[in-house]
Amino acid sequence: MKESVRCAEELLRFIEACPSRYHVIAKLSERYREAGFQELKERETWSLEWGGSYFVTRNDSSLIAFRLPEGGEARGFHAAAAHCDSPTFQIKENPEKSSEQYVTLNVEKYGGMIYSTWMDRPLSAAGRVAVEDPDTGEIVSRLVDIDRDLCVIPNLAIHMNPAANKGMEYNPQVDLQPLFAIVGKKGRKTLRELTAEAAGVLPEEILGQDLFLYVREKGRFLGPEGEMILSPKLDDLQCVYALTRGHRECAPKDYITVCAVFDNEEVGSGSSQGADSTFLEDVLARIGEALQVSASRVREWTASGFMISADNAHAVHPNHPEKADPTNRPFLNGGIVLKFNSAQKYTTDGMTAAKIRSLCKKAKVPCQSYVNRSDIAGGSTLGNISTAHVSFPSADIGLPQLAMHSAVETGGVKDTWYAVKLMREYFSE
Ligand code: CO
Question: How many CB atoms within 10 Å of residue 90?
Answer without folding.
Answer: 17
